[in-house]
Amino acid sequence: MFLKGKRILIGITGGIASYKVYELIRLLIKEGAEVKTVLTPSALNFVSPTVLSTLSGKESYWDWNYRRPLIHIDLAKWCDAFLIAPATVNTISKLACGIADNLLTATWFACHKPKLIAPAANSVMLSDSIICENLKRLKKAGVEIIPSDEGLLACGDVGEGKLANVNLIRDYLVKALTPQRWKGKTVLITLGSTKEYLDPVRFISNSSSGKMGLALAKAIFYQGGEPILVAGDIKVDIPHWFRKFTVDTSEELLKLCLELFPSVDAVFMNAAVTDYRFKETFRGKLKKKEQTLKVELDPTPDILKELGKRKDNQLLVGFAVETENLIENALQKLKRKNLDAIVVNPAEVMGKDRYEGILLTKDGRKEEIKTSTKEEGAFLITKKVAQIFMEDPQWERKYR
Ligand code: CTP
Questions:
Q1: Could you give the residue numbers annotated as active site?
Q2: 97, 194, 265, 380: which has the highest count of C-beta atoms within 10 A?
Q3: Backbone phi, then psi, for 16, in 5-degree steps?
Q4: Is the pTM of this model over 0.85?
Q5: For residue 195, what pLDDT band results from cuts at 50, 70 and 90?
């Protein structure tokens, strides 16, 4: 959905990590993007134009000898975004100084579309003060610098400098092509289920996967915000580049949310908090006996309600699953917990791939969201929340 029909120009420079671009091209093509590649002369030592053009289905360029002297202009006009991956320190420095001595660098300066670079080099080279200055200069000029990864480098050293994971590069491309509605906002997103223990090995919980919470975090990232994830038990992998905390019980979730709350701009409370906990918990493993075991359950703290009480300027968005009276029940929760908005999902779509929900706001708006994936659903929710609460000047005046 996010990259369908988008035209991505990938510039490849002469670094050992350039072989990973093959995988990146496959990923982008699978998502429906169109990809063209432009190489520096030294990149030819590391990747093959034949492989690149086979994977992308388009010619690969590295020189002007195509009888098309204006190819750099054509490529710059063709693309929606220009990414250089990997970017060597040599090319980074040329770009920072305005040097256009090959087809890739000339195309860069001819291009006024969103531009990104994914640096890759030995950590000592990347942390050199001149290179850091050059990167800062590019950033100041509006270039998105995709952070390199840490790990074992091709030279055998361990440190920062690995080309970013191709999935992260893909996420940055989506970000570059998406309106930045959440720019500068820090957003707390809770996800997954909490556990309430009877003894060290037994607990009650629920089957929430955390998939929707992760989709919300990605949607916020695509739109320029900084997501902070607080995850209970989840069945999805959270990419390591997201800021993440993990919790086990509702009490831990409450503590962390209260700690983070003053420093965030919005909260999407997507965690499926277990509603009850055992009145008594046992330190040792409970032994099986012949008699009936009677346990008592107490309600867990209502985290969202606690946040609602402490709300200052933060936007609070809750989620509810209902089997009947969807809107009525959800509106009661919105009021009881002092929320700005709530998204209610019909119970029958739980566990399905498609997404269905109704966004209800404090001022009586109602938006139905039906999409074929949770990713699209999460994107629309975050987009609409931003449009209603942050882009509408009326809202600030009327309701804050
Ligand atoms: N929630 C919470 N703390 C709880 C229970 C729920 O913060 N102890 C949050 C959920 O994360 C969700 C919203 O409140 O964003 C609504 O959750 P839901 O379970 O639908 O509401 P409850 O108040 O628990 O009501 P009920 O289970 O009776 O429908």
A1: 155
A2: 194
A3: -60, -30
A4: yes
A5: very high
